[in-house]
Amino acid sequence: MFDLNMRMNTKLDAAQAAQIKQLLWNNTPQDYIARRFKISQTTVSRILHGRQWTGAEWPNGAVGAMPTSRMLELRDMPPALVPAAENSYQTDPNRHQRISDAIGAIALEIEQELEDDLEQSLQSAADEARTTVEQLSSGEEPEVLSWQAILDRAGDLPLVKLIDEGEDDLMKKALGMVFFALSINEWDKPQAESLLKDVYGKLKSKNH
Q: Which long-range contacts (CB under 8 A, 24 or more apart) does 64-72 make?
């Protein structure tokens, strides 16, 4: 007759099963036990709950699953310290370097993505700037964001404050064209001021 429990016990011998129960009794982490005996953590859990090596004794002489009283005691106990010589995390001399290299590689990828996004944003702004200046040069009137809309959305920007304090309506109109062409998160960027100078210059030339 096929004995499933015997079949599942074949990776270990009785002595190893007893050692595992001793380690579990001492609150040793299951993942450490699995690495040490080259078995799955599921197997360790099955031994803990009496589904494998049922006949192997616990340190108190009990068999089967770990006694409930001991399980309750272990809940309030810290995990047992794993010997440094047997801890793969501590014995790997290159672990910290490998982690550092991995983090560095991820950081470089993120930095490159940010640079690509910035480059695309600047290119988009440059295209919008050329379109606005070309419209002015050809006599077309680009769309304009009203000054009140600018104050409502970005009244605290230094450039907006400076222009608002003056009485140059042409400058306000130029800024309205610039802000209409750019996305709002580009309004405080250097390209906005550069575009403003070009548009303002074209407006002044057009009005003379």
A: 66/21, 66/24, 66/25, 70/25
Burial class (CB within 10 angstroms; exposed 0-12, middle 13-18, buried 19+) of 158: exposed
| Domain of 27, in residue numbers | 4-91
Summarised one tens digit per residue, pLDDT across range 47-58 is: 999 999 999 999
Using one digit for the tens of pLDDT, what is the confidence trace for 169-181? 888 888 888 888 8
Mark whether 77 and 125 lie in a shared domain: no
Q: How many domains does the chain have?
A: 2
Q: What is the pTM of this model?
A: 0.40
Mark whether 11 and 79 lie in a shared domain. Answer: yes
CA dist 87 → 12, 21, 39, 74 (Å): 21, 19, 16, 22
Higher pLDDT pick, 183 / 22: 22
